């Protein structure tokens, strides 16, 4: 029976009908807007219309559904719930012919399946991010709760950025292999390639792929325990665990997982004790067939001060790189970004931006945000003339000097008449919060520093604070002229200072 969607469709209807009798009306509604997707191994994948319904099914109905499905199918079945927003538009499934056929189901959710998306024509908002592995493939051995028991009760949320999905990742020749490898490890964690190591320059999508793996595994295997961590956080966590005498808690946190995603491994260089701890973490996970995915800004052999034994282990699995995207891919990324953020920009403007910014996708996105924010503030149409004006300051003319977080922070504090202590301190006054957020945003835009590194510069703040600041300023730039002007003025000053120093 596994792998046969028809078996699930018929069974799901029966299960739903039988439960309907016993459920209160508000619970029945959750099931009315559900759709069987497929059986994958012994996991029944069911789509629902939104996150709320998914949570309700997972927390309130899981034991009953798993029990009923297991009885109907004659073997122990686990439930995996995925979100498919189009179900809300389709209306409730009346249980007769309203259930879409498995084929329809496959095509509606196939955006991530098989690893290849068409380039350039995928402007629609992202869908569920669900795809299934080849029919009949063994699901990996999850050390999860057996059917009928609540899951994730004792695990921390994996802290994944909801926007970094396979569905929002544009594929081109520069990243096709890395993307395919990422999909493969998600579909068969611990089995396809272990570890998977993705390397490439800053801003080319490594973090995006790591998060996409996390989301996709989560969609396929509802019980999977996933942990995303930057190597800097791993280091800090390790140091704190020694300080607080909490080594066992630390070890559990990183070893009792099914998938460990470690970003920016290069920051482990020169940290001998942390490297040793990571070595043991790696071994524990690898021996237990748990998946490890690592990103790095360089290939392992160029991580010169990383211990040999660690570098050797990275070579056990698959090493793949991401290169800067070609022009077509850059245009496709901008198109997707514009659709996702509901930014209107004609094709020639997207092509212009893509032709000017060639090596860093973060900068590419930043340029699009600036152009559309400028147009919206001035109530002007987004056209080529406007894009040229806005990008004039942004685009390097010749070799651009390196900008440091220190320069950005010094310029920002003097611009707002604050001290560096103010900028790094904990005051929540509005002016200070905005100044701090602008400085963080500029660090993100003008330097290659990772989120945790930026957080550290601002008095040891968490990387999620930096992520929030980045989002907030992007939004404010489009809403408030003053913020747009401040950011533009500051960018100019910082670049000027860097050129003259
Ligand atoms: N192929 C892609 N399709 C769509 N968006 C992309 C793609 N590659 C990168 N991006 C976007 O570019 C931005 C930068 O990517 P990301 O943070 O993943 O880069 P990175 O390689 O991890 O950089 P760093 O090493 O500096 O952390 C993100 O907003 C990401 O969503």
TrEMBL record:
One of its GO terms (biological process) is DNA replication initiation. Pfam families: Bac_DnaA, Bac_DnaA_C. Residues 192-320 form the AAA+ ATPase domain. Keywords: ATP-binding, Cytoplasm, DNA replication, DNA-binding, Lipid-binding, Nucleotide-binding. This is Chromosomal replication initiator protein DnaA. SMART domains: AAA, Bac_DnaA_C. The gene is dnaA. One of its GO terms (cellular component) is cytoplasm. Residues 404-473 form the Chromosomal replication initiator DnaA C-terminal domain. SUPFAM superfamilies: P-loop containing nucleoside triphosphate hydrolases, TrpR-like. Oligomerizes as a right-handed, spiral filament on DNA at oriC. It comes from the Bacteria. NCBIfam families: DnaA, PRK14086.1. HAMAP family: DnaA_bact.
